[in-house]
Amino acid sequence: MWCPNDVSDIVLAFCKVWTYFGLPIYKLKTVNETKKIIQHQKYYICVLNLVIFGSVLLLYFVFLPVENNLASYVSFYEYFVNYFQTIVIIIYAHVKKKEFEDIFNELISIEGNIHYFSGRKLIYDKLGKELVRYVVQQTIVSILLFVFDIYSNIRSETELVFIIGYYFGYWANFHFGFFLLFLPKIVLKLYCDFINAIKHQNAKNTIKVYTKLHSLSVSVVKTLQVFILLRTFSTFSITALDIFFGISLLTTHHFSQFLTICLIFMNVSWLINVLFNEFLMLYYFEKILEQKQLIGELISENNRFCNRKELILIYLKFGHEPPFMVCGLFPLNCTLIFSMIAGVATQIIYLFQFIQKKDLENYLY
């Protein structure tokens, strides 16, 4: 199994994948024996990717016109949101290409500082195995969903074309979901390694390294907040519509027992999988903030090298840092997942209240 030697190996793994999907391209440059930097490379493959995704979206409008029924409206909305998300990710990633370069280099720099601080090499074997397991798991789930959709929904060549086109757009931004999850995971690991290294250090040395580490976490949130907002919106809207359509389908049509069980199982599995992914990302960001409090306690235990004025400034800094926010709309912590679940449930109730069952039977297909 893949075992990265340092944080640059993990970053480059994502960058290699980005090469094929139109996102910014980065290369590792070795300055000397102890210093490595990641630099952005100018390539214009993103134009080709944008043309491909835009053409696929345009072909849908031309050859798969929206009909006056619920299934057609839901399909059109999910298809559009899927490709819109992919195109925005590519464009906005290029807008933020310098910020990504700075974040990658800060990760490498801080890793070196913590290595020097602790006097031991940081281990990334466990993180590499977690990444591989997660990618394999998500890939298997998406392939099973693709096969099930083809098996249960194909009634014409038009529907086959739609499903292939939909999953093409879905897999095109598949990798970026891994990046949104594992970038805060890497930052969290640096926090944990830093905490393990500062138990026998004085407060002045600790605060110098911690300031850089916390500045990195703030930069990560500022750079990713638009991507997180886009992902949250698409997950919320598609989840609500999928559940509503699935329940409507089961209540108005008679399927075989096997197909009914499969339909329920795949929809519930997909829902759990999506919400679990969101929860993990939010959990990592929340844990990063918790490390701040723990570092503050460790500094207070090793304050013999600071005078009273310096200690007061340190306590003010650790105690009054605002929580991470997504575009100023909502906090980036685990409470968001519960708000999403409540919002999805409320939206589904609204949809059923405004549509009568008799109308639903005539309007579904």
Automatic annotation (TrEMBL):
UniProt family annotation: Belongs to the insect chemoreceptor superfamily. Gustatory receptor (GR) family.
Q: What's this chain's function? A: Gustatory receptor which mediates acceptance or avoidance behavior, depending on its substrates.
Q: Which organism is it from?
A: Tribolium castaneum (Red flour beetle)
Listed A to Z, the keywords are: Cell membrane, Membrane, Receptor, Transducer, Transmembrane, Transmembrane helix
Gene Ontology biological process terms from the UniProt entry:
chemosensory behavior; male courtship behavior; sensory perception of taste; signal transduction
What compartments host this protein? Cell membrane
Q: What cellular component terms from Gene Ontology apply here?
A: axon; dendrite; neuronal cell body; plasma membrane
| Name of the molecule in the record | Gustatory receptor
Membrane topology recorded in Swiss-Prot or TrEMBL: Multi-pass membrane protein
Organism lineage string: Eukaryota, Metazoa, Ecdysozoa, Arthropoda, Hexapoda
Q: Does the keyword Endoplasmic reticulum apply?
A: no
